[in-house]
Write a structure and sequence with these properties.
Blueprint: H1 3-13, H2 15-23, H3 28-53, H4 60-67, H5 72-82, H6 90-111, H7 117-135, H8 146-153, H9 155-177, H10 183-212
Helix pairs in contact: 1-3, 1-6, 2-6, 3-5, 3-9, 4-5, 6-7, 7-10, 8-9, 8-10, 9-10
């Protein structure tokens, strides 16, 4: 198991302390910090994978320059090693880690009667069908359509979904811990959940569209 896979396992295991802190209404600051760490690690495992393949020649500055700022020279350097094969299970393990984390948050806030059960069911159905379709290709990271690229594969698409998840789930944890699950506070939470839900569905549509293209 390489460093990227270890990071994936570690961030998935973080759901247990985070779930406990949310359910007991612990001080929200450490909860929010752990949620932030969890989603930052999702980006860090990509750097760990490239760094290990390049034997350390790709630095964090190179990775940020390529991923965040789109610097052409850095992207060429990073992509040269990113395309090299990793562990046989690495890509699927990363998706499994994403699903464990996301499902855990949906389940927690559904259990707390903050998110409607219908949302959780739709998310499960969406992920189950799309993961099965895209998994038949071996990976779902490469999209052929322009629409699929921008909402799913691009750095902007990947960054946006992670930021949206962190903000939406972090906000719900905050209002529950501070007993503000009512009125305008809950309305803001519903808006964030709606934005996240719509974007997840758009990504699913992009994946299905890409799969059905000849």
């Amino acid at each position: 198991m390489n460093n990227a896979d270890k990071i994936t396992v570690f961030r998935a295991l973080l759901v247990f302390p985070i779930a406990y802190l949310i359910l007991v209404k612990f001080n929200p600051i450490p909860t929010l910090l752990l949620i932030g760490v969890m989603f930052v690690l999702d980006a860090l495992d990509g750097f760990a994978m490239v760094s290990e393949k390049s034997n350390g020649s790709v630095t964090i500055i190179d990775y940020i320059s390529a991923s965040v700022f789109g610097l052409a020279s850095a992207k060429r350097k990073v992509n040269r090693y990113k395309s090299l094969p990793g562990t046989s299970y690495g890509a699927r393990l990363d998706i499994a880690g994403d699903r464990i984390i996301e499902y855990s948050f949906w389940i927690i806030f559904t259990y707390l009667h903050i998110i409607p059960l219908a949302i959780l069911l739709l998310i499960v159905v969406r992920h189950s069908f799309v993961d099965a379709l895209m998994g038949s290709k071996g990976t779902s990271s490469k999209m052929r359509s322009r629409f699929g690229y921008w909402v799913y594969s691009s750095n902007i698409g990947r960054g946006w979904i992670n930021v949206t998840k962190a903000v939406a789930f972090g906000y719900l944890a905050l209002i529950y811990a501070t007993s503000h699950v009512y009125g305008a506070y809950l309305l803001v939470g519903y808006v964030l959940v709606a934005v996240l839900f719509v974007y997840i569905m758009l990504r699913g549509i992009a994946q299905v569209y890409d799969f059905t293209r000849k």
